Amino acid sequence: xxxxxxxxxxxxxxxxxxxxxxxxxxxxxxxxxxxxxxxxxxxxxxxxxxxxxxxxxxxxxxxxxxxxxxxxxxxxxxxxxxxxxxxxxxxxxxxxxxxxxxxxxxxxxxxxxxxxxxxxxxxxxxxxxxxxxxxxxxxxxxxxxxxxxxxxxxxx
Length: 156
Hints:
Elements: E1 4-12, H1 16-23, H2 29-32, E2 38-41, E3 50-55, E4 58-68, E5 72-77, E6 85-92, E7 97-105, H3 110-118, H4 120-139
Antiparallel strand pairs: 1-7, 2-3, 3-4, 4-5, 5-6, 6-7
């Protein structure tokens, strides 16, 4: 099966170092990951490290597969959405950081491939957009927090 991928590239008004620190601090992942209620991690994040995230009643394990401070960070899911990979790339621009977020998944069946092509696209795009909105909200010190009810629902 061919991989399905979704990519979003936008700017965030923060330094690469600030963004990388936020993305890779396990205690802060629930602040920016849509639907995440908590994270357990026994070690600092690095390539090969594993952490468990809770989404309501569901828990899933992630393995860090890319960790190159302060530019790239990525994981593969080992739980219910086994094989979903998420990658972050941070590039310095003159007044902000360009953030590239990419979801990649290789469907295990023809039916899963069709579902990914026609139904998952909107969900993946919405999740990537919510991650960026959450990162912006967290890193904007002089704005009041905005509550997004959809962030409290588990996705996928």
